[in-house]
Queue: 2 jobs
Job 1
Amino acid sequence: MSQPTCRFCSAPLRRTFVDLGTSPLANAYRDPAAAAEPEVFYPLHTYLCDGCFLVQLPAVQSPEEIFRHYAYFSSYADTWLAHAEAYAAAMVERFHLGSDSRVVEVASNDGYLLRFFKERGIPVLGIEPAQNVARAAEAIGIPTITEFFGRSLAQELAAGGRRADLLVANNVLAHTPHLNDFVAGLALALAPGGVLTLEFPHLLELIEHNQFDTIYHEHFSYFSFTTAHRVLAAHHLEVFDVERLPTHGGSLRVYARHRDAGGESVSRRVTALLAEEEAAGYLTLDPYRGFAERVRATKRALLRFLIEAKDAGKRIAGYGAPAKGNTLLNYCGIRTDFLDFTVDRSPHKQGRLLPGSQVPIRPPDAIREARPDYVLILPWNLRQEIVEQMADVRDWGGRFVVAIPELEEIP
Ligand SMILES: [Zn+2]
């Protein structure tokens, strides 16, 4: 492969952020009947651009290959649905959306979010390239275009008079390999007085809370607020507000509009967060150094725990089959030698194998039948919800464990 270059500023990428070895695509859940088939592993090597400080993973596969059959259905996570509903209510009120407005969501998944606007009588349009999830959205009455978003599709929307008064790009900015084409598309698809909101995991949280497992092939870019602000500005979009959210271990919700649009004044939160990142050194190399060694220490701690538990004859099951769990298990080399199985509420994952590690995925009741000594929670961002749902694990003396931010038995 030729020398990778930064997907925003085109500078050559020379500096490793963290190298997690090789892994299959994190959402490539496997059919057990095909378990003997070869499986393709790709490098999971992230770089820091020393020109613009964008942390990034060079694309190893086309978005077509990665996202056409995306197995993640947003509607299976209760916390996530509550987040979506609260977002819809807040946007309708703040920006006075009504039956004459249009809400367009990029990466609209199974309609988990747009349905809350539709319920309020607001016209909606989803854009979702994964055909299986887009069909689920259509089934609940959410019109959905099954294409990848970028400049070309945005031009079609604009030409057809379908620009957005509220353009939602939640948890998709990080997933786009063609960053400049994508953001140019956002600018084109936004009505003159429209509002764009973006949500993405905050790089500061990733670094400070050791969330290295959120690095996987579907996530191409990892943004500080400063870098995101800079990317939007390059496409004539002005950030006028920002909020910190607890989702995905700590995300930002950024509000932007056309640079000349006017409207409410730029929030003090914008300048405060830019200043905070600068004070924390995020415009220097300092905070990025040392991350890779912390990741390796986390691997050693988890393996030490698993080895000791197995030596003591303990049985260990996983909870959850999130993409991030696959990064963790494949980076650490954990298979059914340590984890007997994992469970997931999504029927689309049950009965399949985790990519790489080949750990079988069962329904949550499998834990109640097997009564393992330890339950390793893979989606650590949902740990509270899972401990409550599975409270009966403690009835037989079972313990919950998480590996991130550091190895912990949950008291
Ligand atoms: Zn760059």
Job 2
Amino acid sequence: MSAAAGWFAPRLIAWQREAGRHDLPWQGTRDAYRIWLSEIMLQQTRVATVIPYYQRFLARFPDVRALAGADSDEVLALWSGLGYYSRARLLHRCAQRIVAAHGGVFPREPGALEQLPGIGPSTAAAIAVFAHGQRAAILDGNVKRVLCRFLGVIEDPARRSVMLRLLESANELLPEQDLERYTQGLMDLGALVCTPRRPTCAACPLAPRCQALATGDPERLPLRAARRALPERRVTLLVLCRGSEVLLEKRPPAGVWGGLWSLPESTLDEADGLAREVRARFGAAPRTLEALAPLRHVFTHFRLLAFPWRVRLAGTGGGALVAAEEPARRWFRRCDLEAAGLPAPVRRLLGELSRRADDAPQPGA
Ligand code: SF4
């Protein structure tokens, strides 16, 4: 054990025992399924947000076989609102792979776990530690921040060479025992004390030897590459209403909101053109078109500015809307939207519309 590990790990372990988190729903288990599920949900997402999703997911899919056998629509519906939907798609694929290739049992070794869809090195290490007590180093965003500050790393940890050095340090700092508490301690310290803004160094067990604190400006680390302004993408969304139903389209499996049910899109932005497009694409004449308040949503790589138009259709008889009845299109009753996998901004918009008094079913519609 290195001298740094001899100092670092015992302090962190003692601090976790005293001040760390002990009652998170995914703690106190060796069930790799539960640990894996929590790790995937926690990527780029706060604990408080994850907890209700985790509980709903477990109630519906109590083990990896239940998840593997689920319909992808239902998986996405339960994930709806957590964002980063590729995680849900990979989660589902991973469950299916574990059942098909591993008899429903998670591999023990981090290297084997990393071969599974959606499991990166840090997640693999966390599963190996918490499910099997293995000696493996996690290196997620929180841990990178703690190590950059403690070790005084003044280069961008997004660079591969820097990341590899951090991984080497993370491995050197690992204790011989109490790996679970040590790993939880690193996670807790990054989440509760060594936070991105205003770290509470006075409460930190690592403060006596922290190099970033010694500079007097710990928040300066880790170094972040200058952020480029995100490009803006504009789109028109069509809220096609047939009585109390709304038409949704299933998005392609990959890409933004992949596999979710969303509103049909258009590149047009004025009423006459949209009316013509609705007739051509959906085989029905709009009775009214109403521009709604724009929606904004920030993705990792761009900002979305969406202009929704509510389109009330003239009627449903006489073969109207035949073109709408395609496998990737479906009329949803409002009461069915709750169980559908919708992007969070679309869910909010439809929820808002259904609350509006003038959104009641129209006579004769
Ligand atoms: S002393 Fe401050 S900057 Fe250093 S590891 Fe602790 S909380 Fe982070």
